[in-house]
Each structure stands twice: as structure tokens, then as C-alpha cells.
Design a protein that fits this description.
The complex is a heterodimer of chains A (1030) and B (428). By secondary structure, chain A is an alpha+beta fold. Helix content of chain A is 62%, strand content 15%. In chain A, helix 9 crosses helix 10 and helix 21 crosses helix 29. Classes of the chains: A alpha+beta (1030), B alpha/beta (428).
């Protein structure tokens, strides 16, 4: 109800919708009621029709089945009387046909019930109908079977009963001669006839019992022949069997009748139920039709009345709520048209027309207000416009740097702002009314300006905006940017304006800017550091070189114009590997400056050290300021190398001091071990058992002496005496030496060859140490080879450039090179740095080397001011020794190869040594060599001896206890015996003291420990100095 | 606003159509069963047909079957798979034609799921054919004729697919009786009387076969008709044949008449009388009284298990009387087995309904193995025999003790060799 009133009060449209809606609804209801009643009636009529059909069909079906049953019963009753064949025709066959009709009808009925418009009650009976149909079929089967059974039983001639009668007659005939048997046969016949009437099995059983008695009589009979007995027994057996069949058939027929009875009991109620249900359905349908018609009539009447009432209500509503109010509004509109704004329209009720009335009232009120307010608003607006015009005129006048000149078609000025006055010197009063060109044009400019203005004003030829010079009142040129435009007044009159912007300050600023730029450009170009400017491309992956200063040109070796505009990665490929490009990218991305550490830039032949900074500049470009620090860096590297070298030298010095300290004493000790065996061997028989042991002692002593010699070489360096030698000769001497042969015999798989260059430069060297070095290198090479391999000894001349010399650590110049290459396993990179250090070895100490082999090589090279280079890989190692070539050729060095001892001629020799056994050794050896020997235990004792004696030669030990040493002793002796021959013997190396002694006149120097041979040779060389010393 | 109103109208129409569509029955799932499916609606019952002999002298046997059924349904609270059970009971009259017509009434309803019955094997012979043709499953707690399932381990003539029984195949009842008669009683001449029914004929055939094999002679093998009242002729024949034992496995009242008239026949005074389980029934013993004293009966060995004792108590509690035969036990087992088979076969639909495949149900019963029944563990063979046969020969010494006393007076127990193990799949 609330919703209804809400709709009712919502407006005319709502009311109209409600009214017409209800009207149409009622009409729709009338139609729906009519249609529904039609449908229901039609449905009911269909139900009635279907029910009637079903009822009729059921009755027909039931009638057929009932008739069939009756005919079937008649068949049973009549076949005996009228004969089986006739009974078949009259009863059995019609019965079967009727059953078939009933089955067909029941099938049809089933479909009819399922498909027709019958009620649910009747539809539920489809189960019964199934049963009816099944029973009918079963009735048909049973009927046929029962007819077959009866045929089997009663068929003329071949039926069981006929057979029994025939057999019974035959039995009677066979037993006719015997009274007892004949009586039994009659009794059998009586029971059989009784059975035919009663159809009771016990009667037949009595007949069978008679047959049993008959059997016993026949068996007991003596009157009957065997053949007769057999015939009678056969007939009795057949009778018994036929009787059994008759019993079975009768039982089956009885069962069939029972079946019929049950079937009748089953189907009769179904048919009755169906008929009753169909009738009930019909009645129900008829009642439904009547009810439907009744209800629909009432509904139609009610709906029609309601519709009429609704029409009246709608008509009344339209007249009162719409038509009359619209007429009133029309009158009001006419009054408004006549200007009667004070009248009002009806505003109630508050529907669309009420709202229309309200709208009219509002409109009239507003029109009234508008008319009243219009004049005052016009005055106010005019005043506002005047103020606005004044404001803009003031602004135009007071614009500080923009001069505005207004002029008419005759170029007469009518507007001249204050900026014009400042620019051209004329004030407003002076300028107004003057020709424009007269005010601002120069002497030669007036005509041109006048013509341009005329063409623009008259012909519309535009004057392009641009810079130009006009004239100040005082005649000074005024540079301005001028543009022209045209404007139309409200009265459609054309007015021309030109705007002049003073360029004086701007030009000044531009000049200052140019000056500043030239200054910065100068700084850029003439700064000592290289400066490059790059612009990022490809999202910072590369940079375009935008500028390059002169320093950068010098560093890079490019001209600016050749490189600007190119990509950094193309022009400087090394920028990628050095990280310069990445640094530029980082700065470009982050906007933060970045200092670059010293970096080695390598690009083909270019190799230089750079250091600098990268920073961004406001225009988005990136600047790299850098210096070429290559000289500085190389000096620093050289200094580092020198420091390392110094450290090594100091290290070697320390080792030398240590080694030197012990070498003297060791050599003295070794003298006994080396020399005494030699003396002993000379006295031993060739076959002495001691010879081998003594030789072993001598060999050990010699090896120990070699170690001490190496130690001394490492410690104190190589003898300063240099001879001009041919390196190839030294190599050949080594290759043919017993030491080399012995070395090769220890490594049978190693092949050693020489590749010696011809025309080799002479070499100023110590041949002993060169060969020693060669031997050490070959020994190392042989031991580096596992089983089989090659060693190649090469020589050549080589001129070292400064760069190459730097790498090797020698001065540039001419060199003779000795190279030893092997195919061994190579040296580990970590070991190469240490291989020249004393006692640094990967081999087993004492077995194959002294641990001083490469140290000796190193010292030899160092003492010869040469250099050494080691290259090694898994395929082998190469030692390359660089020796400074000598200036000229020297006399070919001759090697002492004589193996015989140098004997004396009885000369007297004074042996001076503080060691008793040294004196003893020297005495025995010299005596063996044919000399006379006198000994002294100290320098003082020798001097004393020489004061009263002469000696052909004095053997002076260099270091002797706390008194005079060898040199001092010699200096004293030569005061006594000027020209006295002397031989300095020392367990130490040929040090400064020895050199001094030699310079004082000592004839020779002999290293301890010495052998008989070396001693003899040294002494003889003093007595016979014509032979070239070694 | 008009648009909103039209929207309401459309929405109303939509819901209306939805309601209309909801009102329709939920479509049943597609049936894949080789025979057919029974689709049972959410609120609909599961229909089971009952075919029993409920009239005439054999009615007590049928009533015992119905009572066994009721006890079994009590166990299941009258429900299968959540659906109530609706029974349609039909009387077979213990005749073949009665069985056929009663079965027609059952199978006429397409919603019928299974049949419990029959009482008499003769009725079962025709009813099982009707049932089998309609695709149903049928189980009996009382049929024992060999012709219905298997004879000698081979398919019997009246075997029908879907037929099962929990009563023992009495093929061996005849063997048991013959063995006892020949070996224990020393009888060498015997007569047999049946009523033409497959049940009684099966028993007399089994007896004759075994008796002959043992060396005895069947002096007469004859029949009577159901309903016969005059038995003297046939008894005279028995007497004339000089039979030492008369084996007459008949139902009431024919069995009663044979007994009473035999007792009146002087020539049969020394003849031993023996019948079967159909007469192991209190009404027979009560009717015959002393006439039945000394008479032998051969019948299945009743179960004596804890479950059977519990069932006997339940029987007494529910029916306020003692059972007249022990066949209510096999009836109980038959219904219990059937209900559980239906529960296992039924497919629950989404709407709460069920779909039961007819062939699936048969196979479910055929696959029964070691089903724990009150008569022992039941295993159904391919011919439909689910019980393990074991037979007792009883002698009625005291009629006052009724069936209970009779069943305690066991003279001989016969357990046939395991023929089932040799029964192949011939029936299938």
C-alpha cells in the first residue's frame, strides 16, 4: 500500500503508468483466465476422451480374453463329443485368435496409457498392464500347450487313450483263452474306464496293480506258450508305459487348467480396476471441466467489472489532474506573453504540472529581476571596460624594454610609449602625429622604411621581423629587433603597430660571452694535461669524441680534426681493456667525478701510462683530463728493479762474506785430503789394495775443493783477469772435456748438440768460469730431462736495442750470446725467480750438484757485466747468456793439455806456511818434483832465513797466523833479495791482497788445495815464463 | 526506473524458469549394465518381490521363510543403502503354475530389484525362468531340488541365470538316505514315490541311483499326484513289490496320507518308511503323532553356531513361538546375502537416488565368497548354490518332542565329497 501511494504521489507519469498498467493487467488477466480455462477444459476433454477409449479398449480386451477362455473351456468339454478336429475348428482356433487380439489390444492399451492425457492414478497402473500383457501371453502359451496335451491324449488313432484302448483290446484277445487272465483284463478295463471318468491317479495305479497281478499270473501260467507269454508281457509293458504317459499328460493338463484359473484370477481384477479407474478418470475430468468453466466465468466477470471501474477512474483522473490544469497553465503563459510578470501559476499538487507551474513562476520572477537589473549592470560593465583599457594602456606605456609604436595608414604616430622615448629620445607629445620614418629612420633609411611601410599598409606585403638599426634623436644608431603587426578597432579601422626591442645590452652580453669562451678555449687548448670531451651514445656503451685539446693531440699523436666525431672505442680500442670506457660510463650515469689510478694503455704499438680524472659537465657531456706519466712510471719501475738487484747483491755479499770466511780454512784442510793421497799413491804398488781407498779419499777431497771454489766464485766473484776468447772454442773445449763425457754417460737418453754461429765476436772473459757456467747449465739441462731429450748449445752475435737491453738488464750494445736449450719438463714460474740463489735447488743436495750451479752462472754473468734471460715452458727451458763483445781479437788462447809433471832441476825453494801439514805436503811434493825444499813456519821466520840464505823461489802462504801475511813477508824479502821470485799460495780467492802482492812483484798465484801437477806447473812457469799463463 | 523494473521482471522470469527446471527429476546417469538398471528416486523404496507358498498344507514352510526374511530385514533396519524396502508378496501355492503366475506379477513392475523365494522347488522351476528372462536376481532359502542348479557338478535342466539359494542342494540327500538304508539298515529292496514335482523327483532319482550303485534294487519307482487322497493302490504296489523300505520325499498332505495309509496296510508292516526335509516340520509330526514314530527323515544338517543360536532367540522374541523348521535360518541368510549384494551394487547418484545394475547385482551374488551367514560361511558357485551340503538321517522316536527332538536324534551324517571344487563355469 505504501508503495502504491508512493507511486500515486510520484507524478502524472507514474499515475498514468499505474492506471493504464492496472487496466492492461486486468485485460491480461481476463485473457489469461480465458486461455487457462480453455486449456484446462481441453485437457479435461482429452482425459475424458482417453479414459473412454481406455475403458472401451480394456473392455474389448477383457471381453476377448474371457471369450477365449470360454472357447478354450468348451474345447475341453466338447472335444470328446464332437471330435478333436471339429473341436479345434470350433473352439481352439477362435480361442487362440481372440488371445492374440487381447495381447495386441493390451500392447496398444499400454502405449495409450503412457502417451495419452490420462491422470496419474491411471498411469500408475502400467505395472498392472504389464502383468496383464504378460498373463495374456502366458495364457496364449498355456492354451496352445494344453491343446497340444489334449491332442496328445485324445487324438484319434495316435492319441495315448487310443493307444491304451488298442493295447487293452490286444491283451484281451491274447488272454481270451484263459479265464483268470481274461477276468484280470476285464478288471483292468474297468479301472481304466473308471480313470477316464475320474482322472484320478490312484485309479490308474489300481489298473497298474491289476497289470502286476496279471504279470504274476502269466508268469505262473503253464498253459501259455513262451511266445504267448512274451506277447502278453510286451503288451502289459506297453500298457503300463502308456498308462504312465496318460497320467503324466492328464497331470499336465490339470496343471494347465490350474494355470488358467490363476491367470483368470490375476487378470480379471486388473481389467476391472482399469475400467473403474478409467471411469473415475472420466468423472474426474468432467468435474474438472465443469469446475474450470465455473471458475473462469466468475473470474472473467470479476476482472471485467474491475476493468470498467478502472477505466472510469482513469478518465476522471485525466480530466482533473491533467486536462484542466494544462488549460490553466496555457492561460498563465498568455499572461506572461503580455508581460504580466506578477501573476502566478498553480504549483499544487506537486506533480509534473505542479512543477511546470513552479518553473513558470520562477521564470517570470527571474525575467522580472533581469529586466530590473539590466541597466545597472550595463553601466557597471562599461566602467569595468574603461578601467581595463586604462590598465592595459598603462602597461603598454610602461613596458621597460619594449618600445611600442602605433601608427595609422599615413604612418602618423598615434601611440608612443615610454620605452620609445628612452630608445629614440622623442617624448610622447613630440612623436604623436609625426611620420614614423621621420622619427626613427636614419639619413639613408627613411625612404626605404617609408616604402616598406607603404607596401605593407597598402598591399599587405609583410615586413619580416628582424634586427635593424634606427636612429636616436641625437643621431646615434640604435640596434633593435623590430616586428610589425596590424590590429582592427571595434569600428573596423586598421591600426598598425611596431614593436622595437633594444638589442644594445644583448649585444654587449654576447660579446662578453664570446670573450669568456675564448678564454676558456685558450685554457682548454693550452693546459698541459690532455683533455677529451665525449658524448655518451648507445646508452653509455660508447662515447662520441666531441673535442680534444692540444696536449691530448700530442699525447695521442692524433690531430683534433681527425678524431672529433668518431667513436671512442674505434679511435682508442685500448679504452675498453684499460677500463677507461667503463669509467666514462660510470661518471655519465652517476654524475659523480671519478679519479682514475695510473693505468697502462696499450693499443698496438702504443704503450703508455695514463692517470687522470673524469667528470661530467652541465651539457651532459663527459670530460677526461689526464697526463701521460709513462716516463715517471718507467723510472719508478726501473728504480724498483734496481732496488731488487741491490737487495740481491747485498744478499750475495752476505753469503760471500760467510763463504769467504770459511773457504781459507777449508782449503787448508782440503790440501791434506787432496795432496797426501797423491803422495801416497805415488808410493803405493799398482796392485795395492789401498789404492782404491786412497783414490776415493782424493776424489772426495777434489769434489770438496770444487764446492769451495764455487763458493768462492759466488762470494768474491770471478777473477778480474779477462782474456779475449772465442766462445765457440770454449764450447768445443767443454764438449770434448772428460767432465762433459762423464755427464752424458750418466744420461744415456740425452742427446747434446751444438749450433754455433760463424764469425762470432771475440769475448773478454774468464774462460774457466765460462766453461764452468756452460757445464752447470748442461748439467741442469740433462737432469731436467726425463729419460730422453735434447740439449742444444748455441752461440750467436746479437745487438740489443735499448728496449731489449732493458728487459735483460744490460746496456744496449753488441753482445755474444751463449744459449743452452733443453726439452725437459720446464721450471715452474714460481721457481724461476729463485733459481739463481745459492743452495736453492729442487734436486737432492749432494747427489747431483752443490746447490751453487746456477749461482755460479749468475755471478759469472754479473762479473762479466752481462745479462741472462730464462724462458721456460712445459716443452723445455732456455738459458740465454749475453756477454759483452770485446773490441778486438786477441791471441788465441791455448789450453794446457799436457799431462806430464813438470820437474825441477834441483832448485832451492823456501816453503813458508804456518800450517805444519801444509809445509809437509809442499815439501814432499816439491821434493818429488826434483826440488830442494826449506820450510819456515811464519813470515818472520822466512825473513830471518832469507837474511842468511838464498832461495830460488819462495812459496808464500797468504794468510798466516797473527804475524806477517804473504804479501808483507814478500815485501820484506825483496828488500833483502830484490827480484826474488815468489809464488803466493792461498786457500782464499784471488782477493785484493793477492792482487797487491802480484803488483809488488810476486811471480804467480796458486790456489789451495793444489795437486802435484798444479804445483809443478805453477813452479815451472815461474822458472820458465815463456809459456802463456792460463 | 523503467529499466530497473524490466530487470526485476527478467530476474523473476529467470527464477521462475529455474524453479520449473528444478521441479523436474534429476536425470539418471547413463546405464552401462548389460541387462538394464533400476533407477530409484531419492525418496523411493527398493522393491523386492516375495514368492512363497503361503496357502495349503505347505504354508508353514512359506511362513518360516517370511519370518526368516523379517529377521534379516530387522538386522538392516528395513533399509538398503538408505532406502526403505518395499515388499510385494505373492503366493505360489507350491505349484509350478502358481510360481509362474506369481513371478509374472512381480516382474510386471520394472522397478522390482530382486525376488526372495520360492518355498517349493516346483514353483521355483517356473518362477526362476520368468525372473531370469526379466533380468532379475532371485534367491531362495528353501529350494533344494537339484534340478534348479546342478546335478553331479553339471548344470541342471532348470538352471536359470540369476537364480541362487542358501538351502542345500538335496541331490545328496537322496544319496545320504540310500547310503544309510543300504549300509546301515541292510536294506536291499527299496521303493520310491514322488509327486512329479522336481523336488521330490530329484530326491527319489538321487536315492535310486545311489541305492542301485551300492547293489540294492529299486523294486518300484512311482509317483502320485498332488492332491491325491487315495494312496492304497500305490502302497499296494509297494507291498506287492516286496520292498523293504519306502522312500517318499513328499510334502504335506500327500506325505501324511502315504504315512497314515501305509500304517493301515498290513503288507507294509515291516517296511521301513523314510521321507525328507519337507516333512521335518512340527505340523506334520503333530498331525501324524505315533504313526510317524520310527519313521526316518533325511534332511540338511541344521546350523548350530553362535549366530544361529542368537537368531533362534530373536525368532522366539519376535514371533513368540519356536520355529517349526530350521529353514528360517537359510531364509535369513538368503535375505541378508541379497541385501548386502544390493548395497554393494547400488551406485549412489548425486540426487540421493540409486542406480542398480541388474547384471551387476547377479555378478555380485555369484562372487560371494565366505559370506558369514548364520548357517556357516556361504560361497556361491556358478550354478547358484551357496550352501555347503551336509545331511543327517534322523529317526523320529518321540513325536512329542517335535522337530527339535527329531533333529537331535541323528542316525547318520553324510558329507558329500567336494563336488563343487570340480564344478566348472558351465553354468556361466
Amino acid at each position: 500500500m505504501i508503495r502504491f501511494w508512493a507511486h500515486w504521489n510520484s507524478g502524472i507519469a507514474g499515475k498514468l503508468r499505474l492506471s493504464f498498467g492496472s487496466l492492461f493487467g486486468l485485460i491480461a488477466l481476463i485473457i489469461a483466465a480465458w486461455l487457462i480455462s480453455l486449456h484446462l477444459a481441453d485437457q479435461a476433454r482429452n482425459t475424458i476422451s482417453s479414459s473412454a477409449t481406455i475403458e472401451r479398449t480394456v473392455l474389448n480386451m477383457d471381453r476377448s480374453l474371457e471369450k477365449a477362455r470360454r472357447l478354450h473351456g468348451d474345447f475341453f468339454l466338447q472335444y470328446g463329443r464332437i471330435g478333436l478336429a471339429e473341436a479345434h475348428v470350433q473352439f481352439a482356433q477362435p480361442s487362440v485368435r481372440l488371445i492374440a487380439e487381447a495381447i495386441a489390444t493390451s500392447s496398444e492399451l499400454k502405449k495409450m496409457i503412457q502417451q495419452s492425457a490420462v491422470g496419474e492414478n491411471l498411469r500408475r497402473h502400467h505395472v498392472d498392464l504389464n502383468l496383464y500383457l504378460a498373463s495374456a501371453k502366458r495364457f496364449a502359451d498355456t492354451s496352445l500347450e494344453s491343446i497340444e496335451l489334449i491332442t496328445r491324449l485324445a487324438a484319434p488313432e495316435r492319441g495315448l487313450e487310443a493307444q491304451f484302448a488298442r493295447l487293452s483290446a490286444a491283451l484281451q484277445a491274447e488272454t481270451a483263452e484263459n479265464d483268470e487272465l481274461r477276468d484280470l483284463c476285464r478288471e483292468l478295463q474297468v479301472f481304466y474306464q473308471e480313470y477316464k471318468i475320474s482322472r484320478q491317479r490312484p485309479v490308474m495305479q489300481s489298473a497298474f496293480n491289476v497289470l502286476f497281478n496279471l504279470q504274476q499270473q502269466v508268469d505262473a501260467s503253464t498253459a501259455l506258450t513262451v511266445g504267448a507269454k512274451e506277447t502278453i508281457q510286451g503288451l502289459m509293458g506297453q500298457l503300463r508305459s502308456t498308462g504312465e504317459s496318460i497320467l503324466a499328460t492328464d497331470l499336465a493338463i490339470k496343471n494347465k487348467f490350474n494355470d488358467f484359473t490363476i491367470q483368470t484370477d490375476t487378470v480379471q481384477p486388473i481389467a476391472q480396476t482399469l475400467v473403474q479407474q478409467a471411469a473415475a478418470e472420466m468423472e474426474l475430468a468432467q468435474a474438472r471441466v465443469a469446475w474450470t468453466l465455473h471458475i473462469s466465468a466468475i473470474l472473467l466477470a470479476v476482472f471485467t467489472i474491475l476493468a470498467l471501474c478502472n477505466c472510469l477512474l482513469v478518465t476522471r483522473f485525466i480530466a482533473r489532474s491533467i486536462t484542466q490544469r494544462i488549460a490553466a497553465l496555457s492561460d498563465y503563459a498568455v499572461r506572461l506573453q503580455k508581460g504580466q510578470f506578477h501573476s502566478t501559476a498553480a504549483e499544487q499538487p506537486d506533480d509534473e504540472l505542479g512543477q511546470l507551474g513552479q518553473t513558470f513562476n520562477v521564470m517570470s520572477s527571474r525575467i522580472r529581476d533581469l529586466v530590473d537589473d539590466l541597466e545597472s549592470k550595463v553601466e557597471q560593465r562599461t566602467l569595468q571596460l574603461a578601467e581595463s583599457e586604462q590598465r592595459f594602456r598603462y602597461i603598454a606605456n610602461e613596458l621597460p624594454n619594449v618600445a611600442i609604436i602605433g601608427f595609422d595608414n599615413d604612418r602618423r604616430v598615434f601611440f608612443w610609449n615610454h620605452a620609445c622615448e628612452r630608445l629614440y629620445g622623442h617624448n610622447d607629445q613630440e612623436a604623436t602625429g609625426q611620420n614614423l620614418e621621420a622619427l626613427i629612420a636614419g639619413e639613408n633609411q627613411g625612404h626605404v622604411l617609408q616604402e616598406s611601410l607603404r607596401q605593407w599598409i597598402d598591399e599587405g606585403t609583410a615586413i619580416p621581423a628582424g634586427e635593424t638599426f634606427f636612429r636616436h634623436r641625437d643621431g646615434a644608431p640604435v640596434q633593435v629587433f623590430v616586428s610589425y603587426f596590424r590590429a582592427s578597432t571595434p569600428q573596423s579601422q586598421k591600426e598598425m603597430y611596431s614593436i622595437h626591442i633594444d638589442l644594445t645590452d644583448l649585444k654587449k652580453a654576447e660579446e662578453e660571452c664570446a670573450l669568456r669562451e675564448s678564454v676558456y678555449r685558450y685554457l682548454f687548448d693550452y693546459t698541459s694535461s690532455g683533455v677529451g670531451v665525449g658524448e655518451a651514445v648507445d646508452d653509455g656503451r660508447d662515447f662520441i669524441i666531441k673535442d680534444l685539446n692540444r696536449a691530448a693531440e700530442q699525447i695521442e699523436g692524433f690531430r683534433r680534426q681527425d678524431i672529433v666525431g668518431r667513436r671512442l672505442s674505434e679511435s682508442f680500442p685500448g679504452a675498453v681493456s684499460t677500463g677507461l670506457l667503463a669509467a666514462l660510463r660510470t661518471v655519465w650515469q652517476t654524475g659523480e667525478p671519478l679519479s682514475l689510478p695510473p693505468m697502462l694503455y696499450q693499443d698496438g704499438d702504443k704503450r703508455r701510462w695514463l692517470q687522470g680524472q673524469v667528470y661530467p659537465i652541465p651539457n651532459g657531456e663527459t670530460v677526461f683530463v689526464y697526463d701521460d706519466i709513462t716516463p715517471l712510471r718507467e723510472a719508478e719501475l726501473e728504480r724498483t728493479a734496481m732496488e731488487a738487484k741491490l737487495q740481491r747483491a747485498q744478499k750475495m755479499e752476505a753469503i760471500g762474506l760467510l763463504a769467504g770466511g770459511v773457504a781459507h780454512d777449508l782449503n787448508n784442510i782440503l790440501s791434506g785430503i787432496i795432496s797426501y793421497p797423491e803422495l801416497i799413491l805415488m808410493q803405493l804398488d799398482e796392485n795395492s789394495k789401498l789404492r782404491k781407498s786412497v783414490l776415493a779419499i782424493q776424489s772426495s777431497g777434489q769434489r770438496a775443493a770444487a764446492v769451495v771454489a764455487d763458493l768462492l766464485t759466488v762470494a768474491r766473484g770471478v777473477s778480474s783477469e779477462r782474456q779475449a776468447c772465442d766462445l765457440n772454442t770454449l764450447v768445443h773445449e767443454y764438449l770434448s772435456s772428460p767432465e762433459h763425457q762423464m755427464r752424458l754417460s750418466l744420461h744415456p737418453g740425452v742427446e747434446c748438440s751444438a749450433q754455433l754461429a760463424d764469425g762470432l765476436r771475440p769475448l773478454a772473459c774468464s774462460p774457466v768460469h765460462i766453461k764452468k757456467s756452460l757445464m752447470n747449465l748442461v748439467t741442469n739441462a740433462a737432469e731436467a730431462i726425463d729419460r730422453t731429450g735434447r740439449i742444444v748449445i748455441g752461440t750467436r752475435n746479437e745487438d740489443l736495442t735499448p728496449a731489449a737491453a732493458l728487459n735483460i738488464g744490460v746496456k744496449p750494445g753488441r753482445y755474444v750470446v751463449l744459449e743452452v736449450m733443453d726439452s725437459g719438463a720446464g721450471i715452474a714460474e714460481a721457481d724461476i725467480e729463485h733459481i739463481f740463489e745459492p743452495f736453492y735447488t729442487k734436486k737432492v743436495m749432494g747427489r747431483s750438484g752443490t746447490g751453487l750451479g746456477l749461482a755460479v752462472v749468475w755471478n759469472t754473468i754479473q762479473d762479466h757485466k752481462g745479462g741472462i734471460r730464462v724462458t721456460s715452458s712445459t716443452r723445455g727451458t732456455t738459458f740465454t747468456l749475453f756477454f759483452t763483445a770485446a773490441a778486438g781479437l786477441s791471441k788465441p788462447r791455448q789450453d794446457e793439455t799436457a799431462s806430464t809433471l813438470d820437474h825441477g832441476d834441483g832448485e832451492t825453494l823456501l816453503v813458508v806456511d804456518d800450517e805444519p801439514h801444509q809445509r809437509d805436503i809442499a815439501t814432499q811434493m816439491l821434493q818429488l818434483l826434483g826440488y830442494k825444499v826449506v820450510t819456515a813456519a811464519s813470515g818472520e821466520e822466512a825473513i830471518s832465513f832469507m837474511q842468511g840464505h838464498d832461495a830460488d823461489l819462495v812459496l808464500l802462504d797468504m794468510l798466516m797466523g797473527t804475524g806477517f801475511n804473504g804479501r808483507q813477508t814478500f815485501e820484506q824479502i825483496i828488500t833483502l833479495h830484490p827480484g826474488q821470485k815468489a809464488l803466493i799460495v792461498s786457500g782464499f780467492s784471488k782477493d785484493e791482497e793477492v792482487q797487491r802482492a802480484l803488483r809488488r812483484g810476486v811471480s804467480g798465484y796458486l790456489q789451495k788445495p793444489y795437486t802435484l801437477k798444479t804445483l809443478g806447473k805453477a813452479v815451472r812457469e815461474i822458472f820458465h815464463p815463456e809459456r802463456c799463463p792460463e | 526506473m523503467p529499466k530497473v523494473r524490466y530487470g526485476y521482471m527478467l530476474l523473476s522470469l529467470f527464477f521462475f524458469s529455474l524453479l520449473v527446471s528444478c521441479d523436474k527429476k534429476h536425470p539418471a546417469p547413463r546405464c552401462t549394465d548389460p541387462i538394464d538398471c533400476v533407477d530409484i528416486g531419492p525418496e523411493e523404496p527398493i522393491k523386492i518381490g516375495i514368492l512363497q507358498a503361503l496357502s495349503g498344507k505347505v504354508a508353514p514352510l512359506g511362513v518360516e521363510q517370511i519370518r526368516g526374511l523379517e529377521l534379516a530385514l530387522n538386522k538392516h533396519q528395513g533399509q538398503v543403502s538408505g532406502h526403505p524396502i518395499a515388499l510385494q508378496t505373492e503366493d505360489t501355492g507350491c505349484t509350478s503354475e502358481g510360481g509362474a503366475n506369481a513371478a509374472l506379477k512381480i516382474v510386471a513392475d520394472p522397478q522390482m530389484v530382486a525376488i526372495f523365494g520360492t518355498t517349493c522347488s516346483g514353483a521355483a522351476a517356473t518362477a526362476s525362468k520368468v525372473m531370469s528372462d526379466a533380468g532379475l536376481t532371485m534367491i531362495s532359502g528353501n529350494n533344494s531340488a537339484p534340478f534348479l542348479t546342478a546335478i553331479g557338478g553339471k548344470r541342471a535342466p532348470n538352471w536359470q541365470p540369476g537364480y541362487f539359494r542358501t538351502a542345500a542342494n538335496e541331490e545328496n540327500a537322496g544319496r545320504a538316505a540310500a547310503t544309510y538304508a543300504y549300509t546301515k539298515l541292510g536294506i536291499h529292496r527299496a521303493a520310491t514315490i514322488n509327486d512329479g514335482d522336481i523336488y521330490t523327483r530329484g530326491l527319489t532319482d538321487g536315492f535310486a541311483k545311489t541305492f542301485t550303485q551300492l547293489g540294492g534294487t529299486i523294486v518300484i519307482d512311482t509317483s502320485i499326484d498332488k492332491g491325491d487322497t487315495e494312496m492304497r493302490p500305490v502302497l499296494t504296489a509297494v507291498a506287492k513289490a516286496q520292498a523293504e523300505l519306502l522312500f517318499f520325499p513328499l510334502f504335506q498332505p500327500e506325505g501324511n496320507r502315504i504315512l497314515s495309509q501305509a500304517r493301515q496296510t498290513e503288507q507294509l508292516a515291516g517296511v521301513t518308511l523314510m521321507s525328507d526335509g519337507a516333512l521335518i516340520e512340527n505340523s506334520f509330526i503333530a498331525a501324524m503323532g505315533d504313526l510317524a514314530r520310527g519313521m526316518y527323515f533325511v534332511g540338511p544338517s541344521p546350523a548350530v553356531t553362535d549366530q544361529s543360536k542368537e537368531l533362534a532367540k530373536a525368532y522366539l522374541q519376535k514371533f513368540k513361538t519356536t520355529p517349526s523348521t530350521s529353514y528360517y535360518q537359510t531364509a535369513y541368510d538368503a535375505v541378508d546375502l541379497l541385501v548386502q549384494a544390493i548395497e554393494r551394487t547400488a551406485i549412489h547418484r548425486a540426487d540421493g537416488g540409486l542406480s542398480i545394475g541388474r547384471e551387476a547385482l547377479r555378478q555380485q551374488v555369484y562372487n560371494t565368497k565366505a559370506f558369514a551367514g548364520v548357517t556357516g560361511n556361504l560361497t556361491c558357485d556358478p550354478f547358484g548354490d551357496c550352501a555347503s551340503p551336509r545331511f543327517n538321517v534322523l529317526r523320529l522316536d518321540n513325536p512329542q518332542e517335535g522337530v527339535e527332538g527329531l533333529q537331535k536324534n541323528i542316525q547318520f551324517t553324510f558329507t558329500p565329497p567336494a563336488e563343487r571344487s570340480t564344478a566348472g563355469n558351465e553354468a556361466q
